[in-house]
């Protein structure tokens, strides 16, 4: 009986353990940047097929392999994290800070990052996508929040069910209208809205208020959609173009990332970013 109870306790904590390991992967990523520099940290943590934005989507490892490292000091810390029920896909987000290298001049820069993490065949987490926005300085995160998650790690779904979930999100993305309120109608209650030059808007009320103030149209060009093996968490990325209602203002081009999470039978946007 004691052995059975211990086994149940181990299983009960399994998804929480996976989430903790995801958060630790992000913290170790940041620690390596502080110790060995930006280039070494990214090369150590990016997956082979990872995506970064320079300024448009490119393969991350290949970009860092081809380009010299920056002497600037990049530091960051996670403040929010979530994970798929299968424990294979998750994301972390929090504030970052970039300062000139010692002896160099220049003003520091601040913002928020988003990292999508995928578990590899060897059980290690690797960054599948890294993106962020810039804004004014915010306090460094000291703890990590997360939504309520399940107890046990779920078994992987079948290939057909995973592909159906991926295609469902892709259809949502392809159906996005140019009007900003289309995004607002798909936000989860705890959604995070990231827009370049602004502090994050947390919660659907703050996000809706921000979107309501946009005067113009956004069009989206979808690049890829990826789905967790539990078919409950996925993400889409691509490029976007904003045409202000005031025709005298220039068209703004950017990248987008949307993280989708299943809420019962519906998909909701839990994070929406335009850089």
Could you walk me through the main structural features you see in this protein, from its secondary elements to its overall organization?
28% of the residues lie in helices and 39% in strands. The protein is α+β, with helices and mostly antiparallel strands and 275 residues long. The strands form two sheets. Strands 1, 2, 3, 4, 5, 6 and 7 form a seven-stranded mixed β-sheet that branches. Strand 4 and strand 5 form a beta hairpin. The chain is globular and about 55 Å long.
How would you concisely characterize the structure shown here?
The chain is α+β, with helices and mostly antiparallel strands and 275 residues long. Helix content is 28%, strand content 39%.
How would the blueprint of this fold be written?
Layout: H1 2-12, H2 14-36, H3 38-45, E1 46-53, E2 57-59, H4 60-66, E3 73-76, E4 80-83, E5 89-99, E6 109-119, E7 125-135, H5 159-174, H6 181-184, E8 187-195, E9 201-202, H7 204-212, E10 216-227, E11 233-244, E12 252-263, E13 266-274
Parallel strand pairs: 1-7, 8-13
Antiparallel strand pairs: 1-2, 3-5, 4-5, 5-6, 6-7, 8-9, 10-11, 11-12, 12-13
């Amino acid at each position: 009986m004691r052995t059975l109870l211990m086994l149940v306790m181990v299983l009960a904590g399994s998804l929480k353990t996976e989430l903790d390991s995801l958060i630790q992967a992000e913290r170790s990523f940041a620690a390596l940047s502080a110790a060995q520099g930006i280039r070494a940290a990214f090369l150590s943590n990016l997956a082979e097929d990872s995506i970064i934005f320079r300024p448009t989507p490119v393969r991350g490892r290949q970009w860092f392999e081809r380009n010299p490292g920056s002497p600037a000091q990049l530091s960051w810390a996670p403040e929010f994290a979530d994970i798929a029920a299968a424990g294979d896909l998750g994301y972390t987000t929090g504030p970052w800070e970039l300062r000139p290298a010692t002896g160099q001049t220049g003003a520091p820069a601040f913002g928020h990052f988003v990292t999508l993490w995928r578990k590899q065949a060897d059980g290690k987490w690797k960054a599948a996508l890294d993106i962020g926005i810039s804004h004014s300085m915010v306090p460094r995160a000291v703890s990590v929040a997360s939504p309520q998650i399940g107890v046990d790690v779920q078994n992987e779904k079948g290939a057909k069910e995973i592909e159906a979930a991926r295609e469902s999100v892709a259809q949502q993305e392809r159906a996005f209208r140019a009007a900003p309120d289309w995004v607002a109608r798909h936000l989860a209650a705890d959604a995070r809205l990231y827009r370049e030059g602004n502090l994050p808007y947390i919660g659907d009320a703050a996000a809706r208020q921000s979107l309501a103030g946009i005067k113009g149209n956004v069009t989206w060009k979808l690049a890829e959609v990826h789905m967790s093996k539990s078919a409950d968490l996925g993400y889409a990325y691509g490029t976007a173009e904003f045409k202000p209602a005031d025709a005298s203002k220039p068209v703004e081009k950017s990248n987008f990332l949307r993280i989708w999470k299943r809420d019962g039978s519906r998909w909701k946007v839990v994070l929406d970013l335009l850089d």
